[in-house]
Specification:
The protein has 3 helices and 13 strands. The structure holds N-oxalylglycine and manganese (II) ion.
Length: 194
C-alpha cells in the first residue's frame, strides 16, 4: 500500500483500494470531531443539490479542517495525494471536497455514477471507511461496476480502508446495511470551490 501503487493502479485500471490508509485510532479520533447533527444526503454537487430518499438513505456533513486536528490531518494527507496525482498523472486536480456519511440500519445508495458523462468537476472519488466493528453479514458493501455495467468487485467497508476511483468511469452502489455504517466520501475536483 503506497502512493506509488495508487498512482500505478489509477493510471492502469482506474481504481485502487488502500487498506490501512488510516489507523483505527485515527478513524476513532475523526469520529469524535464529527458534529452531532447531520443532514439528509442529497444528490449532485454541493451547489446544485436534490433530495431523494429513494436513491440514498444516508446523512452527511461537509468537513472542514477547523472541525479538529484529526480532520485537518486527514485533509492534509489528501492534499499530498492531490499534488502527487497532479505531478505524476497530470490530472489537473484543483480542489477537494469531502463529507462524512452515516447510513442508519437499512440504509443504502442505489447504483449511480459520481460524475455522469464527465459533465461535472469531480474527477477522482475517494471513500474512507470508518466501521471498526464491521463483520460479514453486516451488509453495506460497496459494489463497483465497469463502464459496460459488468460487476467488478464488492468491497467491505472496513475501518481505515480507502478506495479511489475515476469519478466518471465506475458505476457503484452501497448495498443495504444491517448496522450503522460510517464513511467519508471525497472528490478531487478540476475546479476550485469558490
Ligand atoms: C457516494 C458513494 C460509497 C460508499 O457517497 O457517492 O457512492 O461506499 N459512497 O460510501
Ligand atoms: Mn458515489
Amino acid at each position: 500500500m503506497s502512493i506509488h501503487k495508487l498512482i500505478d493502479s489509477l493510471s492502469s485500471q482506474g481504481w485502487y483500494v488502500w487498506d490501512d490508509f488510516l489507523t483505527l485510532s485515527d478513524t476513532q479520533k475523526i469520529k469524535q470531531c464529527i458534529p452531532n447533527t447531520l443532514q439528509d444526503a442529497r444528490i449532485g454537487h454541493r451547489d446544485s443539490l436534490q433530495s431523494n430518499k429513494a436513491v440514498r438513505g444516508d446523512q452527511t456533513v461537509w468537513l472542514e479542517p477547523e472541525m479538529g486536528t484529526p480532520i485537518a490531518f486527514y485533509m492534509e494527507k489528501m492534499e499530498e495525494i492531490r499534488q502527487a496525482l497532479n505531478c505524476q498523472l497530470y490530472l489537473g486536480l484543483r480542489d477537494f471536497e469531502t463529507h462524512f456519511c452515516r447510513y442508519p440500519n437499512g440504509g443504502f445508495y442505489k447504483k449511480h455514477v459520481d460524475n455522469p458523462k464527465g459533465a461535472g468537476r469531480r474527477k477522482v472519488t475517494t471513500v474512507l471507511y470508518m466501521n471498526e466493528l464491521w463483520k460479514l453479514g453486516d451488509g453495506g458493501e460497496l459494489v463497483v461496476f465497469d463502464k459496460e455495467d459488468n460487476h467488478l468487485f464488492k468491497l467491505e467497508p472496513l475501518a481505515g480502508r480507502m478506495i479511489f476511483f475515476m469519478s466518471e468511469e465506475f458505476p457503484h452502489e452501497v448495498l443495504p446495511t444491517e448496522q450503522k455504517r460510517e464513511s467519508i466520501a471525497g472528490w478531487f475536483l478540476t475546479e476550485k470551490i469558490l
